[in-house]
Design a protein that fits this description.
Blueprint: H1 2-21, H2 28-42, E1 53-58, E2 68-73, H3 77-97, E3 112-116, E4 119-123
Antiparallel strand pairs: 1-2, 3-4
Helix pairs in contact: 2-3
């Protein structure tokens, strides 16, 4: 009985060490859901005054750099940036694990934001 307990404890320790060193594992479905949540929050505030809006890079291209830029209202900034900061490394890990390829074009930041039909539009 004592040997079994020692074996189980050793197995638990090794499992914890392996889990710490494991890369982030995420499915395509989870990425799609996370991205949809970010977009939902970005679109939850109507754009009526462009000066109240900011933008941030989002996601990770397979070659490196952001996949895109996205606008958000200052009133949801903390929650929004938290979601984006969780999403970006997940997409990077997904790309690496699944050998995703992309066009490798650099995505530059927009110059400004405009409001059109209550939506924030990034202007490049």
């Amino acid at each position: 009985m004592k040997r079994i307990a020692i074996f189980l404890i050793a197995l638990l320790v090794v499992s914890c060490e392996l889990a710490i060193n494991e890369p982030l594992l995420v499915s395509e479905e989870e990425l799609i859901k996370a991205q949809a949540e970010i977009i939902r929050l970005a679109e939850s505030v109507p754009c009526t005054n462009a000066s109240e809006w900011k933008f941030t890079p989002m996601g990770s291209k397979a070659c490196g750099g952001p996949a895109r830029y996205i606008a958000y209202h200052q009133s949801v900034e903390r929650e929004f940036l938290d979601l984006v900061e969780r999403f970006t490394p997940l997409q990077k890990a997904y790309n690496e694990k699944n050998n995703v390829i992309s066009d490798c074009l650099l995505v530059g930041p927009p110059r400004t934001i405009q409001c059109e039909s209550n939506k924030a539009i990034l202007v490049y």
